[in-house]
Amino acid sequence: MRIQYVLLVIFLTFLVGCESQDYNAEQDVFQTKEAAIKHFLDEFPRSDIEHVKTTDDDELFIVRSGNHQYDVYGMENEHNRYSIVKLTATLSLHNTIAGSAEFHTPMGNDYTYLVVKQNNHDKLPHDTRTKFEMSPILSGDAELSLNQGHIGVKSQSIMPTNVIKSTETIVSQGI
């Protein structure tokens, strides 16, 4: 009897591990975009958040926390159920003036973003300054370039396509 119990526990543990990953138990899902955004803002009460809408209709959230640490989150809509999911690792600009990363959105789009600290755009290499179109974010405390596709800063000689449709700095009380 004891062996059967142990085998049952092992089998159930294995079965749970093989479960479909379509739903993440840690991911909160909501009936409306507004509810998902409100919950997201409540999760980051002391962070600066920029809501970015792209020309491809992606909704992104650039979160700045701590000493110039940036994360990108995206709105996910599956069967009219909304959640906001993390799309990038944390990008730390603690000891530098700028940084970039690539990511893939829930809508299937690939982007590269470049963040520059306030008043440091002129310190970037000439090629970077002239190649990337920058938009002020976080009430002017930083600048953002958001481009279509995976673009290495030194990989192209042509100007990448900027996909920022609109940006807005939001706070918990703003929604």
TrEMBL record:
Top-level lineage group: Bacteria
Protein name stated in the entry: Lipoprotein
Organism whose genome encodes this protein: Salinibacillus xinjiangensis
